[in-house]
Amino acid sequence: MSKDKEMPLIEHLRELKDRVKVVMISFVVALIFWLAFPADLTEIIRNPEFYEPMVTLVLKRIVQDLAGARIEIIGCSMTSPFEIFFLAAAFLALATIMPVIGYETYAYVDPALYPHERRLIYGFTLAFVALFAVGGVFGYFVAAPLIMRAMVFFFELAGVIPTVCAMDFYSLVFTTVLLIGVVFTSPVVLVLLVRFGIISTDLISRNRLYVYGILYILVAIITPDGWLVGNAVLFLPLVALIESSLFIAKRVERNRLKNMIVGYCKFCGNGLRENEIFCSKCGRAQE
After folding, report:
1. Rounded Cα–Cα distance for residues 31 and 92 (Å)
2. Which run of H or E residues covers position 261?
3. Is residue 213 within 8 Å of 156, Cβ to Cβ?
4. Among candidates 259, 126, 140, 237, which has minimal Cα distance to 188?
5. What is the per-residue pLDDT across 94-135, written as a single tens digit (0 to 9) for each?
6. Measured between alpha carbons, how far is 46 from 59 in angstroms, rounded to an integer?
7. What gap in Å lies between CA 80 and CA 283, rounded to an integer?
8. At what angle are helices 80-96 and 9-36 packed, to 10 degrees?
9. Which of these, 34, 65, 237, 276, could form a disulfide with 89 (CB 3.0-4.6 Å)?
């Protein structure tokens, strides 16, 4: 679709409906795969009565990696196995169709983008996905084990056998991985907001204390173990990410402001933006 040939609203809604339908169908297919596809085809051929779906492999691996022999996991309710299977399958299905969601989103907005905007979206999407994946891996292999160790530590302090309801255990794991993945994407969002002039790097630099205070509170909520060491293990990498993104954002901001300059002050030589009558440096009128 060209820029000078705008699509009517009803066509936009129809296209949006079609793309949402593709995403929903993909999600259902992925959900069925994780819930119904056998984990071991050869075992089913040898022993038809034995059947484990794909999601079972993931659940067993989570217990092996994070619980081991330290935590005893119990059902707590008759419906908890079904709820756990569906929760895990839904989470895995969503992760599986992320490329589909990304493509359908891009395909929907692509006709309205200019070439320089497309390049910006490419970089943003790649960085967003990469940081989300890094955050998810960090959440599973670093943050979640720390939470489990802290739980066991407090169980032992209270003289209680580490016993956890299965739904609570898996919910904590999936929520931790998902939320930490989202938090790790914050630098990309920050750079994008600066790129479009919604916020300035100076605003963030002047309010670092408040920004990191809010960030630490968010980290403490995501990792509700009450363990300062565990919070610090997650908080310090985020600080490094924010500082790195702030460095990049300042360069992006300088380039954006440089491109907005249309002239120079006849008194001090400072750059002037469009419709700027008074120089921001010396304050003198240009007319």
Report:
1. 8
2. strand 261-264
3. no
4. 126
5. 888 888 887 888 778 777 766 766 777 777 778 888 888 888
6. 23
7. 69
8. 130
9. 34
